[in-house]
């Protein structure tokens, strides 16, 4: 069923609330999310007319159409020995959109993709909305069970699957069939660099594309608030939420992310950030706006990264702090022959990692955002007067999350209950809240979660932070990750920053361990660098020398640290491990 456009009206769009009526809309967000442009009431003003001459709904699809004209002969995609120009990419996307409509895709249908960073993923980000549909890029680390849940929840009509992930999709189909439901149509993506036969009773990507009409006229969004994608949050122990993006937000955040990343004209971007994550931080669309080149990597490793940086004249790339950590500690690391801009976000980066990555020749730009904000929302905008500060102070400032980019209306740190803005003293903690055109439309089929997220007219991030006297925000922790010990709130980020300064520690994560006396005490999970040995007592003493004693870990556990496919540490797993330990009885 076409749930995105079921019972549309000028009052409330059902793709957000799944059939919600005017009465069920959340009052504080009714005007900004639930009204179409046709419902606006303008005061009469002579000579003011809205027409096709001065109003076209914003959509990032227009970036591709322009790229074909302005950057037609420039390289758009490189993948191994395969290369395309922007003119070729545009033609391929047009034909693919045409082929989708021939398969019966209607406006608002969901099209899922399960694939790594390959050209098909880039092309589908344009072709799917050009067919009027909604793209749903799935996490490649999900198992069959989770994929089956997400396919049902999104009601995906078609799923494109990379040959290496076919077994995951087939397992999901088996689970769907057990419930006597019809799975989506499968389109098989065969890698030109690998030998793989097309399964029976499936369509093949290149064959499907080749059969499309080169003269197909792309469908435009009815309004710029129409959905363009659904992104499922990484999830913990429950089903991830489906975050709905609209054409307007994707357009604006793509341009803002280009600006944050210092990408102006014809950059060469290395895809180390998963394209399924927030639609590649919206840069899949954004690179078309500036005629950039997409360097696609199926697998990401330090050796692949450094070899590609040297061979392809890469100007920009991105990665979570754990990716930066992997790079600086890899035996394959080498100084760069040219400066490469690297954008990091996802968790607060330790200053020591920022310093070491820049010593190799990278220049770091630090951002902050969530799936619900289309990825990047704030940036640690550098001020020239900070150049004269000591290096240690510079890297401490760089670790801040900064100020909102120009497409976001406002970011603030507020008391979660009173909604009052906290003092700009760098010490008083509150919840980081955001509002503006680059905040999600809502959670798919989850009115309650949407209402809770937007309560008070702001999007509540769930992150705790402080606000400095210069207006820059700094994340201190997730609300659920703060360790409360003897009534004191301990920022696990601050403890982890100290741990990363230890020369033997490769990775560190801190969670709360139940304690009979204090309620909780800090428990550090640590992975050591190869060839290093250090005792638990030495690590605890190292922290005590640099932190108040109550903040230093009372427990240290040596083991590999679990992460998501985007490099975020899965603290919910570590919290469960800490809870499974017998309660400590420190005093």
UniProtKB/TrEMBL annotation:
Domain of life according to the entry: Eukaryota
Pathway(s) it belongs to: Phytoalexin biosynthesis; 3,4',5-trihydroxystilbene biosynthesis; 3,4',5-trihydroxystilbene from trans-4-coumarate: step 1/2
Residues in AMP-dependent synthetase/ligase domain copies: 64-444
Keyword Ligase: yes
InterPro entries: AMP-bd_C (IPR025110), AMP-bd_C_sf (IPR045851), AMP-binding_CS (IPR020845), AMP-dep_synth/lig_dom (IPR000873), ANL_N_sf (IPR042099)
Pfam families in the cross-refs: AMP-binding, AMP-binding_C
Annotated SUPFAM superfamilies: Acetyl-CoA synthetase-like
Record keywords, A-Z: Ligase, Phenylpropanoid metabolism
MF (Gene Ontology): ligase activity
Segments forming domain AMP-binding enzyme C-terminal: 494-568
PROSITE patterns cross-referenced by the UniProt entry: AMP_BINDING
One Gene Ontology biological process: phenylpropanoid metabolic process
NCBIfam families from the UniProt entry: PRK08162.1 (NF006020)
Homology family: Belongs to the ATP-dependent AMP-binding enzyme family.
Protein name: 4-coumarate--CoA ligase
């Amino acid at each position: 069923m076409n749930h995105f456009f079921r019972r549309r009206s000028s009052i409330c769009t059902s793709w957000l609330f799944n059939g919600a009526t005017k009465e069920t809309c959340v009052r504080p967000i009714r005007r900004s999310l639930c009204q179409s442009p046709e419902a606006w009431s303008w005061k009469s003003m002579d000579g003011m007319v809205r027409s096709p001459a001065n109003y076209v709904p914003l959509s990032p699809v227009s970036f591709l159409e322009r790229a074909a004209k302005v950057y037609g002969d420039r390289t758009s995609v490189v993948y191994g020995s395969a290369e395309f120009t922007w003119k070729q990419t545009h033609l391929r996307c047009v034909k693919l959109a045409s082929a989708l409509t021939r398969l019966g895709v209607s406006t608002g249908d969901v099209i899922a993709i399960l694939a790594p960073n390959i050209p098909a993923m880039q092309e589908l980000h344009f072709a799917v909305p050009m067919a009027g549909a909604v793209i749903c890029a799935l996490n490649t680390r999900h198992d069959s069970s989770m994929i089956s849940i997400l396919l049902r929840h999104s009601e995906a009509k078609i799923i494109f699957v990379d040959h290496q992930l076919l077994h995951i999709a087939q397992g999901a189909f088996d689970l769907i069939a057990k419930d006597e439901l019809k799975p989506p149509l499968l389109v098989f993506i065969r890698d030109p660099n690998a030998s793989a036969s097309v399964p029976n009773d499936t369509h093949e990507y290149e064959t499907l594309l080749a059969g499309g009409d080169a003269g197909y006229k792309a469908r435009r969004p009815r309004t710029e608030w129409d959905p363009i994608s659904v992104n499922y949050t990484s999830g913990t122990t429950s089903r991830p939420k489906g975050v709905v993006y609209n054409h307007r937000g994707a357009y604006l955040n793509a341009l803002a992310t280009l600006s944050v990343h210092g990408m102006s004209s014809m950059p060469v971007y290395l895809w180390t950030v998963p394209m399924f994550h927030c639609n590649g931080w919206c840069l899949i669309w954004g690179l078309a706006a500036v005629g950039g080149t997409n360097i696609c990597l199926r697998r990401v490793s330090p050796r692949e990264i450094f070899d590609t940086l040297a061979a392809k004249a890469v100007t920009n790339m991105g990665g979570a702090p754990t990716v930066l950590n992997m790079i600086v500690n890899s035996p394959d690391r080498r100084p760069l022959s040219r400066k490469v801009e690297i954008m990091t976000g996802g968790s607060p980066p330790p200053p020591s990692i920022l310093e070491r990555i820049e010593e190799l020749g990278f220049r770091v730009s630090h951002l902050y955002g969530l799936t619900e904000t289309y990825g990047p929302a704030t940036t640690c905008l550098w001020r020239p007067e900070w150049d004269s500060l000591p290096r240690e102070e510079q890297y401490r400032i760089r670790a801040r999350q900064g100020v909102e980019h120009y497409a976001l209306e406002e970011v603030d740190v507020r008391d979660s209950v009173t909604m009052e803005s906290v003092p700009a003293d760098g010490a008083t903690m509150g919840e980081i809240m955001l509002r503006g055109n680059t905040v999600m439309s809502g959670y798919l089929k989850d009115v309650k979660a949407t209402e809770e997220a937007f309560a008070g007219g702001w999007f509540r991030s769930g992150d705790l932070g402080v606000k400095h006297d210069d207006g820059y925000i700094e994340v201190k922790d997730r609300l659920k990750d703060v360790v409360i010990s003897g009534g004191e709130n301990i920022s696990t980020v601050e403890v982890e920053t100290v741990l990363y300064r230890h020369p033997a520690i490769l990775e560190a994560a801190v969670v709360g361990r139940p304690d009979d006396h204090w309620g909780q005490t800090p428990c550090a999970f640590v992975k050591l660098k190869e060839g290093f040995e250090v005792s638990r007592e030495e690590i605890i003493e190292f922290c005590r020398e640099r932190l108040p004693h109550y903040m230093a870990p009372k427990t240290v556990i040596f083991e590999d640290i679990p992460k998501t496919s985007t490099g975020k540490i899965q603290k919910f797993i570590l919290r469960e491990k800490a809870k499974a330990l017998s309660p400590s009885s420190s005093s």
